[in-house]
Amino acid sequence: TESFTLGPDGHLYYAPSFNRTQMYRITMNMAKEPEVPGNDRIRFDLAAPAETKTGETFDVTVKAADADLLYSMHSRISYDASKLELVDVAQAGQFAGEGTYMNTTLEPGKAVITSSLTGDRSVIGDTDVFTLSFKALNLIGNASVTLAAGSSWTLANADETGELHHISEDIVKHVSIVKAVAEDVNHDGTVDLLDV
Question: Can you state the percent helix, strand and coil of the chain, rounding each to 5?
Fold first, then answer.
């Protein structure tokens, strides 16, 4: 498979699968873009359940709406590692299957995920980009998952325009974690007369 990396200089680097000794740079224009309606026409969001139980696994999906030639997305995700364990990251929607690429870098409480189409494909309309699967740990309360401001995306013509678009504000979803057995009021693992 091909290898894509976002370099520290903000440019995207590409190594073809047939020759890993060659590296190509896709120049990204990092200058602040003027505020024009076309740059913000794609809307991103997180889909997550409002509530889950301790020990259960649940999904949070990054979604794109009103896309017009969406080609790639570089996402910075943060989450409450004291309450959530990230167990899987999977491609989704039009970013899944043949002709797609995903790279994931994980550390506790953070994930950096690059999802891209390859060739001359692009997304028009709405699509899921990727899905994060979390396990709720044994701490009850609210846990958050954030798609961080500064996460970026490119359109299909980025190789010609050099334009890199950014999400301007954090997108946050809160999930309430409750005990798996709600009737266990004293949290001793059994439901009995002491819980009344």
Answer: 5, 55, 40
